[in-house]
Specification:
The protein is α/β, with parallel strands linked by helices. It has 13 helices and 15 strands.
Amino acid sequence: MITVISGGEDSLKLIKALRNLLYDSDISVIADTSDAMWTQGHLVCPNLDDIIYLFSGQLNKQNWTGIKGDTYSTFNFLERLNSNAITETVPDKDGDEGSAAQLSDNELASGKPAESATGICETVVSENAVCETASCKNAVCEPAGSEASENPADNSGKNTQQSLKYDDLTNIYPIGDKQRAVCIARAMHLKNRLTITQSTQILSKSFGVTANILPATDSRITAYAKFAGEMFSIADFRAICKTDKTADYKAEIEMEFTKYPQITKEATSAINSGSAVIIGPGHISTISPILACRPLRKLLKKSFTIAVLPRLPADYIPGRYIALDRLIETYKGFADILIQDIKDEFCIPDATRINTDTDSSYKAESLAWEIMSHIGSR
């Protein structure tokens, strides 16, 4: 059995390739939940959900997120309802009532998300927040947090003290109808005092998944990316990373929590019982919150761990991209094998150089074979 610490889209592609070499029941995946958000009364966990969709054969592989063929009728109708409310109640800057554009019935019936749902908005942390916010410098150092004990279910349906982009009437998180049902089910689980881990087990079983899919922690943990002088939710920051490939190397990841994040006993068991742990490839902003969970790094040091680095920028030199430097040094602290792409111009000492591309099934399978050969020859 192997355990994969998922770093987002590239990790999903690697996991897909590993499924050609291993039974699903021999794969455990530990996922980040710091991108989770309460929106319209239910809990969205994009990283966690996409792994479930992958193993169930329902992942939308056009953009590697969400359910393939999903419709957006509820989302579009909700936008229409809220646009009417805004027209009635929200004045514009000149004191006149705003005129929010309304969706036509044809748009509602199209099953496609309206374009107005996209955009980037700054995340503001309330001065009255009771949670401690720790600037973790991309979360590869140990942040300081509150010792208050709190079950994630205690926060079910509650605002988490931040003014999030998708919490108001004008910005509705674009989520498909089937995926919305998944998020509603999860919210119901938490409101009935189940943990994220227990909820994930129920959802995995419902989707017919035999792989062991696990959140890194059951504690509520929310990450934000500080980039170019602004604070972004992880959902918004991922949109930035699609256009600015170096954004993930420059951002500082700040985490908010009410209880210091601890690795779950289920994730601990998966690491201890497996023959190897594979980290990444993926976004620093996705992997870092997982590595911040205690005592994960101590567990990884005792396990046979292979860490796959993201591609280095062409102009990379030590000191230019601090977030990337911290990740490399963190990996060196526990990884038995540090994998670097063979095409990188800068060579990291003692790194194993192979092709880490996952942009085609063939390349992803080649990477999977390389990694499994290292595990088999240990």
